[in-house]
Each structure stands twice: as structure tokens, then as C-alpha cells.
């Protein structure tokens, strides 16, 4: 049964369309390039993003149960299976078709679709050397949402003893040696992306990198 419609941030639709515009420019070989998600191609990430507006809560729970509780493994498998069925052009059309669809699985927050599209857009763009700016006005509430959130691994605890400082807005998190970057860069760091991909600088960068590797 489809999920009930919920109030969803209009910015999500705009960011999905911005990603679709970028994906329209990709060459064939770029679809099989690795993304920032370990083991995922660009094609896989797009498949995941189209699944988020189509899956049911029951279907997601069943996948996680089959994966013995490993959420990341279940999501990776679902993305690869979907990518195996649908070529990039079809998935791109699906992304545009449901860009403004206000649907998400149960127990998720209205902020989760925003985090999903902001982070996965960079998972695609950065390894390809493509530029897709993350608006600070969206990155900051996304950071607030993930910072102490158990679903995202509690970045505040993982980065304890470090001070994350946004250089394009007034967001600051934690205390200690500084890790500086644009709010979008810090969002990538908070969601576990490598320091080298996030483009952050500062005295705390080495420690942040070590924690992400552990």
C-alpha cells in the first residue's frame, strides 16, 4: 500500500530537479563511475533516490529483516537491484516525475528527504568533478537534524572534541581543534563522507579523518 502523503519541504523538489539537470549532462561512462558511497556507482545512487518516493514502510522493513538488521546493506542491495532493472534514462525520468511528491516511509522525519537529496547529490557530483552547490540555507537545518541523530551515527559524539565551523554561514558544532568548510562540506563530513571528498580544512582535519576511518 502506498505511504500516506505528508507535508514536505518544497526545497526538496527544487534540489531533486537541480540534480536531474546535472545528470542530464553525464556521459555514458560516468554512470558506472564510483560515487562517494562505497561500492555504489552513480547509477546506483540515482536508483536509490528514485526508490525513496516509491517504497513502502512494510517493504523497507522486510528488506532490513532479510538483511538481519543491517540497514546499509539492505539499502545498497535495493539500489543495485533497481539499477539493474532500470537504465539511467528511465530513472532520471522517474526522479523528475516524483520530484515534488510528498511521500516518505513511516518513522522518518520531514527533514530526511532533504538530507538524502543534499548528500547524495554530492555523492554523485564530487567524484565526477561536477559542481552542484549546496545552499547554506538548506545545509544548516540539515546539519541540525543529523548532528545528534542516532540514525546518522550521532555525528556530535563521533566528532566530540572537535569544533566544526561553517565558513559560509554562522553554524558551529562542538568544541576543540577546528574543522572548517562550507556548511555543505560539513554536512558531508557529518554523514560519514571522507575528509578528502568534503574539502574541509583546519587543525582538526587529521583527527576527523581518523575517526571516520575507525
Could you characterize the architecture of this molecule?
The chain is mainly α and 214 residues long. The protein contains eleven helices and three strands, in the order ααααααααβββααα. Strands 2-1-3 form a three-stranded mixed beta sheet. β1 (163-166) and β2 form a beta hairpin. The model has no long low-confidence stretch (mean pLDDT 91).
List the helices and strands and how they pair.
Elements: H1 10-23, H2 42-51, H3 57-66, H4 71-85, H5 88-97, H6 112-125, H7 136-147, H8 155-158, E1 163-166, E2 172-174, E3 178-181, H9 183-190, H10 195-198, H11 205-213
Parallel strand pairs: 1-3
Antiparallel strand pairs: 1-2
Structural class designation: mainly alpha
Strand content: 5-15%
The helix content is: 40-55%
Tally of distinct domains: 2
Low-confidence stretches: none
**What gyration radius follows from the Cα positions, in whole Å?**
17 Å
SSE ordering: HHHHHHHHEEEHHH
Mean pLDDT: 91
The quaternary structure here is single chain
Biggest sheet, spatial arrangement of strands: 2-1-3
Jot down its keywords.
214 residues, mainly alpha, Nonspecific Lipid-transfer Protein, Chain A, three-stranded mixed β-sheet, globular
Amino acid at each position: 500500500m502506498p505511504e500516506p502523503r505528508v507535508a514536505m519541504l518544497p526545497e526538496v523538489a527544487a534540489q531533486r530537479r537541480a540534480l536531474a539537470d546535472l545528470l542530464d549532462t553525464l556521459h555514458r561512462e560516468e554512470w558506472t563511475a564510483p560515487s562517494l558511497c562505497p561500492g555504489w556507482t552513480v547509477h546506483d545512487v540515482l536508483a536509490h533516490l528514485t526508490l525513496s518516493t516509491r517504497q513502502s514502510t512494510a517493504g523497507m522493513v522486510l528488506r532490513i529483516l532479510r538483511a538481519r538488521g543491517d540497514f546499509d546493506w539492505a539499502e545498497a542491495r535495493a539500489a543495485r537491484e533497481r539499477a539493474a532493472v532500470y537504465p539511467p534514462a528511465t530513472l532520471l525520468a522517474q526522479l523528475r516525475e516524483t520530484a515534488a511528491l510528498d511521500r516518505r516511509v513511516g518513522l522518518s522525519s520531514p527533514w530526511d528527504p532533504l538530507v538524502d537529496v543534499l548528500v547524495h547529490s554530492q555523492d554523485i557530483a564530487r567524484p565526477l568533478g561536477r559542481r552542484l552547490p549546496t545552499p547554506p540555507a538548506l545545509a544548516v537545518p540539515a546539519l541540525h537534524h543529523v548532528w545528534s541523530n542516532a540514525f546518522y551515527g550521532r555525528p556530535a559524539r563521533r566528532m566530540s572534541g572537535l569544533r566544526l565551523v561553517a565558513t559560509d554561514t554562522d553554524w558551529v558544532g562542538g568544541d576543540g581543534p577546528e574543522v572548517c568548510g562550507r556548511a555543505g562540506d560539513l554536512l558531508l563530513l557529518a554523514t560519514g563522507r571522507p575528509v578528502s571528498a568534503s574539502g574541509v580544512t583546519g587543525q582538526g582535519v587529521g583527527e576527523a579523518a581518523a575517526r571516520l576511518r575507525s
